[in-house]
Amino acid sequence: MINQRESMRLPAAAKADLTIMLLAKHACSDGGKDALDGNHAVYHHELRETLRAIGLNVVVADSYEAVIARPEADFVIPLLNRGGFQNSEMLAPLLLQRHGLPFLGASPIVRGFTDDKHLSKVVARHAGVPTMDWQIHRIGGLQPGAPAFAWERLVVKPNASSASWGIRVVDSWAEAHAHIAWLHREGHDVIVEPWVPLIDIALPVVGGANGPWMLPPMAYLPEDPTHLRSYEEKRALTGDTSSEDPLSPVEDPLLRQMLEAHGRRLLAEMWPFDYGRFEFRFDPATGALRFMEVNLSCNLWSKKTISRSAATLGVDHAELVESIVAHSLERQGLLTDRRESIAA
């Protein structure tokens, strides 16, 4: 059930014996915002300090060169997912898998198809989950022309980017075609969807004491639902940089039941992974709930969705991070002691 508390503790022996590498662009940062990546640098610093506060022996690295050869670590947390080239999120997991070194997240093949918004929609629809209409425009692929699905406005965005980089809402196919061409020149495949200014809902799923642990779903409720947040806004590079995302727990029991049912169908196709969010679009007028995308190894900052969802169960940020790491270590055979579940 969504509202259960299923977090895990790390055995003291594991904390004493294991060396954990945090591999992230800003793993060595001082906690300030970055001129290009904004609050992502704050997030990486917070995660490093949280891991150490849990009692883990943490070493840090901020480039792929750190894992070209097998590093002196027992387990790696790879967050280098914007490496400046297409599908860069798969490189560190592939290198670590080549070394036989366990890491947080998901296998490279699962990470690859879930980061591909088109493929994740194909899988969701195959699993019987209602899915937003879409169209894929790959570089060098067969270009399908204007969408056959009904639309008044279109969302045009990279097929495998994060934090809304490169996204644009357009009113005509001519505008859409021009933005597709620009994104292609920038080296990105493109996905096109109908623009539906309704409610975005995230269903966080993390590793817990009993495998997949569905955290309470969170609805994004901005003052202006017609406004599409930019990359600069999500990274706090513009506007009010101190405000938090307008997130609220989903209280409606029927909607929560639908989300849980859809989540279980998606998990049957994508598990195992260690943490992520299933993203849906909800129409309160009709009750329609449609899958949009999945974000594995997404933002674990205390101000973001997963941590704020866990907080509604009384699970603080450190406890959540410890549970995610403990689950990953256990599923990959690094914990020899019996796991310790935190009592509700």
Automatic annotation (TrEMBL):
Record-linked InterPro entries: ATP-grasp (IPR011761), ATP_grasp_subdomain_1 (IPR013815), Dala_Dala_lig_C (IPR011095)
Superkingdom to which the source organism belongs: Bacteria
Which UniProt keywords are listed?
A: ATP-binding, Ligase, Nucleotide-binding
Annotated EC: 6.3.2.4
- Occurrences of domain ATP-grasp (ranges): 121-326
- A GO term, aspect molecular function: metal ion binding
Q: Which PROSITE patterns match?
A: ATP_GRASP
User: What's this protein's family per the entry?
Assistant: Belongs to the D-alanine--D-alanine ligase family.
Protein name, UniProt field: D-alanine-D-alanine ligase
Species this protein is from: Sphingobium boeckii
